[in-house]
Task: inverse folding
């Protein structure tokens, strides 16, 4: 038999060129998709602005605080991402650009990782790997970046950790270095978001299911050391620094209850994000050879999604809490369908006639288009009131008004509001988060009270209400059983009983409005009152339409 070494090297070189060319195609596709279908000219989404406020204060040297000079509060939840944003801001990058640079970079790396894992770990073809990566590229990832969320950052760490876990699964004798990297990346994931600890543990459990106890003992030991020693030290610091073991929103959103609506929404997002690739996991049940892999590979995404039964579903913009399962499914589905045609007695021989080849190529293009179209369509339901695909929200009057209020940022004025994102961030006022996501006292005492408001004496009270001066609130037992309604009534009652005047009740309809109350007895009261009440370009965040001031309809 002749020497084939030169031929082998040539084939490897050609294969490598295809992979690098595919990577360039993916980068170009992301750039083109972002420029054509994603609107980056919008202000931060309300909840993303909360994290940006913490990052800004940390970059300025004030610590992880909601209000400068007050006790630390961990309301950001995405702790490692927040610290990374603060780091970039500290070295001179603009706050918003820091957020988007990290998000965009993470999204790009995750898409490339999906391609290379399928190609190099599972030996999938270039076309299959490229389609799989494009499915992620045109999904909701860039919409989170546009909204200033750190969601792609966490998803990248999840995908990277699971990639290392898959390498441990694949290799008969994985190295110590590989197991250390797996544990370290899992730890970074846990430092980014607390539910990352659950996800990392479920990944380790999946490795155990496939490899067995004997082959996984060392990996379990290394994992335990990393999380108990390094993770334990962070946990102790966190408890000491913030005064509570968990991020503040978990006390407000968890409340020690099981949230079944959140559970079903989370599981729905799991299947929604997986889309057509879920079929691969069903096919994995076909034989004993693939059954264990299918069950193991489903373990991390299913347990992770199910874990959200512990918190309410509020602020889950476009299913962002479950987005990390999207790349996890895409880097573990291929071995479950590999060889399924042969096992089913199906064979494929390339057609010899040009017409047949063209026909089958067109069929493949149409099928690929359908898959990508499905992924793109997931950006059409990011918010309940979204009106057009690709734009989840548009102009936001809270952003514009906050910039006008920033004129008074040096006066020490206090804003009490349920809208604790854009208004506090861009006004730079001291703020009381009336809902409690960024206020430890409210989170641990259940809800805001008149006595608590008395301690802060806010100059401005703002809340998001589902009523207006045209459609007054109905005070009955059913409505008062709802936490949000009760909070808005507390704020409204307090304002009306403590010398405040209603400057505006902006809304797109009289059934949903932003109330603005201004206290009468401080130096800039009349100026701020005029600024708010005369604002004609207050746009409703959900539709981008100019809002109506229903307060002007009062007698």
Result:
């Amino acid at each position: 038999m002749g020497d084939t070494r030169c031929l082998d090297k040539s084939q490897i070189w050609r294969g490598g060129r295809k992979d690098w060319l595919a990577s360039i195609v993916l980068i170009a596709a992301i750039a083109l998709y972002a420029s054509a279908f994603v609107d980056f000219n919008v202000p931060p989404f309300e909840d993303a602005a909360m994290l940006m406020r913490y990052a800004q204060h940390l970059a300025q040297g004030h610590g992880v605080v909601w209000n400068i000079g007050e006790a630390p509060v961990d309301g950001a939840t995405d702790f490692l991402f927040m610290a990374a944003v603060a780091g970039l801001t500290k070295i001179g990058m603009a706050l918003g650009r820091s957020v988007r640079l990290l998000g965009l970079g993470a999204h790009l790396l995750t898409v490339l990782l999906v391609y290379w894992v399928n190609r190099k770990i599972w030996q999938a073809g270039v076309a299959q790997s490229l389609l799989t990566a494009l499915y992620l590229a045109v999904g909701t990832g860039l919409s989170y970046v546009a909204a200033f969320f750190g969601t792609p950052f966490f998803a990248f760490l999840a995908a990277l950790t699971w990639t290392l876990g898959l390498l441990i699964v694949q290799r008969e004798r994985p190295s110590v270095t590989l197991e250390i990297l797996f544990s370290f990346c899992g730890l970074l994931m846990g430092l980014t978001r607390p539910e990352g600890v659950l996800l990392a543990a479920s990944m380790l459990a999946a490795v155990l299911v496939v490899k067995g106890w004997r082959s996984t003992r060392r990996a379990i030991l290394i994992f335990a050391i990393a999380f108990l020693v390094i993770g334990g030290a962070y946990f102790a610091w966190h408890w000491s620094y913030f005064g509570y073991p968990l991020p503040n929103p978990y006390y407000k959103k968890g409340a020690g209850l099981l949230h079944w609506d959140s559970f079903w929404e989370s599981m729905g997002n799991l299947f929604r994000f997986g889309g057509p690739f879920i079929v691969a996991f069903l096919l994995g049940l076909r034989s004993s050879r693939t059954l264990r892999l299918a069950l193991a590979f489903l373990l991390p995404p299913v347990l992770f999604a199910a874990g959200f039964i512990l918190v309410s579903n509020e602020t889950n913009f476009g299913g962002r809490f479950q987005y990390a399962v999207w790349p996890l499914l895409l880097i573990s589905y291929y071995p479950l369908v590999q060889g399924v045609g042969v096992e089913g007695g199906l064979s494929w021989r390339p057609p010899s006639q040009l017409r047949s080849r063209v026909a089958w190529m067109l069929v493949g293009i149409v099928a690929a288009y359908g898959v990508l179209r499905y992924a793109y369509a997931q950006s059409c339901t990011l918010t309940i009131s979204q009106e057009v695909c690709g734009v989840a929200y548009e102009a936001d009057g809270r952003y514009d008004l906050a910039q006008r209020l920033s004129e008074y940022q040096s006066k020490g004025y206090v804003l009490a509001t349920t809208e604790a994102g854009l208004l506090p961030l861009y006004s730079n006022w001291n703020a009381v988060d009336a809902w409690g996501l960024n206020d430890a006292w409210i989170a641990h005492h259940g809800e805001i009270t008149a006595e608590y408001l008395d301690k802060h004496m806010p100059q401005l009270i703002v809340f998001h209400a589902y009523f207006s001066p045209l459609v007054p609130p109905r005070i009955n037992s059913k409505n008062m059983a709802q936490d949000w309604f009760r909070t808005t009534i507390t704020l409204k009652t307090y304002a009306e009983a403590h010398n405040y005047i209603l400057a505006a009740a902006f809304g797109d309809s009289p059934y949903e409005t932003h109330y603005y109350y201004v206290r009468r007895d401080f130096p800039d009261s009349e100026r701020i009152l005029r600024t708010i009440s005369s604002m004609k370009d207050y746009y409703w965040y959900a539709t981008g339409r100019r809002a109506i001031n229903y307060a002007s309809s009062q007698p």
Remarks:
- The mean pLDDT is 91.
- The two ends are 99 Å apart (CA to CA).
